[in-house]
């Protein structure tokens, strides 16, 4: 074997492989952070009012079947109240966004708002789809 053959094994170019890993990492980060908290629902139309929410907010979703979700976890009204009370003990000034499907019975939203009021949460937002 000549010296030139050994040199080709020493100079393996890993730059394209590193670029591929960085692109995959970037795609993974975007896909995981782009997801909105909560369960997919068909939101009613609303105005262009400023949004209430952020990384410390909790999303309470009522789907068209009347099932309640805290972020993405299905809960009953009693479990919702206990989990919100527990979270309020850790973070007293956190906002809550209530997301209701447009096909949801109004009573389901009122039950959730009643629980949020009993817990003592003052920052409450109702999620709507923007006007088209």
Per-chain topology:
Layout: H1 3-10, H2 15-34, E1 58-62, E2 68-70, E3 73-75, H3 77-90, E4 96-100, H4 106-119, E5 124-126
Parallel strand pairs: 1-4, 4-5
Antiparallel strand pairs: 1-2, 2-3
Helix pairs in contact: 3-4
Pairing-aware structural class of the strands and helices? alpha/beta
Q: Stretches where pLDDT falls below 50 for ≥5 residues? A: none
Main β sheet profile: 5 strands, mixed
Instruction: Note the total helix count.
Output: 4
- What is the CATH C-level name of the largest domain? Alpha Beta
Helical residues, percent: 40-55%
Give the helices and strands as they follow along the chain: HHEEEHEHE
The overall average pLDDT, rounded, is 77
Count of the separate structural domains: 2
**Would you count the extended β strands for me?**
5
Characterize the structure shown:
- By secondary structure, this protein is α/β, with parallel strands linked by helices.
- The chain folds into two domains: 32 residues; 69 residues, 2-Layer Sandwich (Nucleotidyltransferase, domain 5).
- The chain contains four helices and five strands, in the order ααβββαβαβ.
- A five-stranded mixed beta sheet has the order 3-2-1-4-5.
- The relative contact order is 0.18.
- The model has no long low-confidence stretch (mean pLDDT 77).
């Amino acid at each position: 074997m000549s010296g030139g053959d050994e040199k080709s094994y020493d100079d393996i170019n890993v730059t394209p492989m590193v670029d591929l890993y960085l692109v995959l990492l970037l795609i993974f980060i975007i896909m995981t952070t782009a997801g909105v908290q909560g369960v997919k629902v068909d939101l009613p139309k609303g105005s262009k009012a400023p949004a209430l929410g952020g990384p410390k907010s909790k999303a309470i979703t009522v789907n068209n079947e009347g099932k309640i979700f805290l972020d993405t976890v299905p809960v009953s009204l009693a479990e919702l109240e206990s989990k919100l009370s527990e979270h309020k003990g850790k973070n007293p000034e956190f906002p809550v966004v209530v997301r209701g499907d447009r096909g949801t019975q109004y009573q389901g939203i009122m039950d959730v708002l009643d629980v949020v009021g009993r817990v003592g949460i003052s920052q409450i937002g109702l999620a709507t789809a923007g006007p088209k």
